[in-house]
Amino acid sequence: MRATSLRTLAALAVKRGMSMRRWDFVAAYLQGDLEEGEVVYCRPPPGYETTGADGKTRVCRILKPVYGMAQAGR
């Protein structure tokens, strides 16, 4: 949820006399960035493995932090 959306919902709740008791930040880690120059690789998920011309298994470069990574909370 974007900060503007959260502020809008909070303003509507106040205007209508409602209270907000729970917060669920499912996508909180999807907005993060890796530090400049930081490169992270991982194995592809099952079913997506491929090999290159040299016969070695390919890996995926992570462009955005994923929930569960040490870099995700930045």
Your description of this structure?
There is one protein chain. This protein has 74 residues and is of the alpha+beta class. Helix content is 18%, strand content 8%. The protein is built from 1 helix and 2 strands; from the N terminus they run αββ. The chain has one helix at residues 3-15, and strands spanning 40-42, 60-62. It has a two-stranded antiparallel ribbon. The radius of gyration is 19 Å and the shape is elongated. It starts with a helix and ends in a 12-residue tail after the last strand. The model has no long low-confidence stretch (mean pLDDT 81).
Order of helices and strands: HEE
Structural category: alpha+beta
The quaternary state of the protein chains shown equals single chain
* Average of pLDDT: 81
Distance between the termini: 17 Å
Strand count, sense and barrel status of the largest sheet are: 2 strands, antiparallel
Helical amount among residues, as a percent range? 10-25%
Integer-rounded radius of gyration: 19 Å
> What are the segments in which pLDDT stays under 50 over at least 5 consecutive residues?
none
Q: What general outline do the C-alpha atoms trace?
A: elongated
How many DSSP-defined strands?
2
Strand proportion: 5-15%
Number of helices: 1
Strand arrangement across the biggest beta sheet? 1-2
